[in-house]
Amino acid sequence: MVVVGKIIAALVFFILTSTSSAGSDTIRVEAKFTLRGFLDIAQMMEDAGYTNRGEFLAAMERAAGRYDWDRDVDKDSVFEVEPPPGWVLKTESFPEEETGPTIEIEPTPMPTVTQQEYDKLKEELEALKERHKKHEQPGYLMGPEYTPAYGQTIDRIVERGNVICGTYNETPGFSDKLGVWEGFDVDICTAVAIAIFGDPNIEFVAINGKTRFERLFDGTIDILSATTTWTYSREVDWRIEFMPTTYYDGQGFMVRKSLGVKSAKDLTGARVCYGESSTAAQNIKDFFELWQVLYKPVPVPASDEVFKYYIDGDCDMYGTDRSALAGRKSTFNEPENHVILPEIISKEPLRPAVKYGDAKFSAIVRWTIYSLLLAEELGITQDNIGDFLEHSNPTIQRFMGERNGDLPGSDNLGVKLGLQRYWSVNIIEQLGNYGEIFERHVGKSTPLGLDRGVNRLYTNGGVLYAPPLK
After folding, report:
1. Both 29 and 123 in a single domain?
2. CATH code of the domain containing 291
3. For a tag site, which of 178, 187, 214, 274 has the least CB within 10 Å?
4. pLDDT value at position 315?
5. pLDDT under 70: residue ranges of the chain
6. Within 10 A of 34 (CB to CB), how many other CB atoms are there?
7. Is the same domain home to 258 and 322?
8. Residue 466: inside a domain, yes or no?
9. Roughly how many angstroms between the first and final C-alpha of the chain, as a whole number?
10. Residues 6 or more apart from 101 whose CB is under 8 A from it?
11. Are residues 71 and 162 in the same domain?
């Protein structure tokens, strides 16, 4: 069938969303992307009239002149691709009086989109939006910076009647809202409230990778306890003060066991998910650059959960703190089908943080954490603390609120910070020491099954160390 003029040229463009370059039998394919910014191979195949993915990828490699053509594609990229098998495009010369070229197309079935197919695609798009809506958390409008002076934070906490703690609501072992808030980071915050009030007068606010700093910046929360790595930039840029390290961690990778890999270095060309606002982003880039391994980064917005992208099959592996990987793995339907690889690619000292400026509140939080370590070092537990009253050891007497107040009429250290006499005793009675909190939430007998490792006391081969309470 022979058709003359621009009408057929327009028809070809509509059907294939492509154009024929003058003097060459190629199809013009524009780069397309999904809603989340991934290269939409399926849509580009459809635009080019291909139905076989392998044939299309091979054609794209030939068009780009390299096998890894998809690594640096941007929204303006255009490729001249050879037509799919079975599709014939011929151009011929015409007499001068003709108004345009004659295009001869063999009567081969052409891919078209019917209204029914269009409606189905639209329905699938809406389903995709709904599917990933679960990843999204509501945004947070940050207010003006909170700039406290000495004693201001603790004064408003006492006036309010509770401590407000920002933490994650879905980090197994560290902070989970399972009817009630529980976890390692939750107990750290609770210990601060007990130190101040004698009871766990505390409110928890769920945060994400972005809002954790914003809420602390504007004073919406008093303390941040959310598996947060202490870094130079975070401390300086956000003007926050990091407290003592409560958990020494390192970043690792999780993959599906079916891949059969033993090391992250084996996954050349792998899609790697990570939180774009986390320390994982730079750690992963540095690791693969060091070992000269090609990979495809899949950054996940701070409002999304990285592990959900991994479960949905949007990446081959994902990287974050190894403690978080262990916690997340414990929640999978088939945890035995996933493996945490052996590499530890970074240092991740996880610390609570407060807003810089109120040294009194900082001291309360700092010594609350140290009291948990000192209790373990002294052998004081939730069950036996009563046995240490009126002890002969001066160090224990100070811990128990019985010595060295250094103020007229006082015989305890708590008075120096406006705390109750038995502030440290109250913490241990209600929560236990550091070791008890660790074992209760993330230790060997929990689904996470974490070993103390370097998170042992310095007296037992670890790095945890508290200064003297005197």
Report:
1. yes
2. 3.40.190.10
3. 178
4. 87
5. 1-24, 35-37, 67, 87-115, 117-118, 121-122, 124-139, 303, 405-411
6. 14
7. yes
8. no
9. 98
10. 9, 91, 92, 94
11. no
Q: What is the pLDDT of residues 24-47, one digit of tens each?
A: 578 888 888 776 667 778 788 888
219 and 164, same structural domain?
yes
138 belongs to a structural domain: no
Residues 177 and 51 in one domain: no
Domain end residue (candidates: 300, 326, 346): 346
Task: Output the pLDDT for position 457.
Answer: 96
Q: What is the pLDDT of residues 366-380, one digit of tens each?
A: 999 999 999 999 999
Of the residues 77, 99, 133, which one is the last residue of a structural domain? Answer: 133
CA atoms of 369 and 167, how far apart (whole Å): 17
pTM of the model: 0.67
pLDDT of residue 361: 97
Q: What is the 3-state secondary structure of the chain?
A: CEEECHHHHHHHHHHHCCCCCCCCCCEEEECCECCCCCECHHHHHHHHCCCCHHHHHHHHHHHHCCCCHHHCCCCCCEEEECCCCCCCCEEECCCCCCCCCEEECCCCCCCCCCHHHHHHHHHHHHHHHHHHHCCCCCCCCCCCCCCCCCCHHHHHHHHHCCEEEEECCEECCCEEEECEEECHHHHHHHHHHHHHHCCCCEEEEECCCCHHHHHHHCCCCCEECCCCECCHHHHHHHCEEECCCCEEECEEEEEEHHHCCCCHHHCCCEEEEEECCCCHHHHHHHHHHHCCCCEEEEEECCCCCHHHHHHCCCCCEEEEEHHHHHHHHCCCCCHHHEEECCCCCCCEEECCEEECCCHHHHHHHHHHHHHHHHHHHHCCCCCCHHHHCCCCCHHHHHHCCCCCCCCCCCCCCHHHHCCCCCHHHHHHHHHCCHHHHHHHHCCCCCCCCCCCHHHCEHHHCCCECCCCCC
Same domain, 26 and 61: yes
Q: What's residue 128's pLDDT?
A: 59
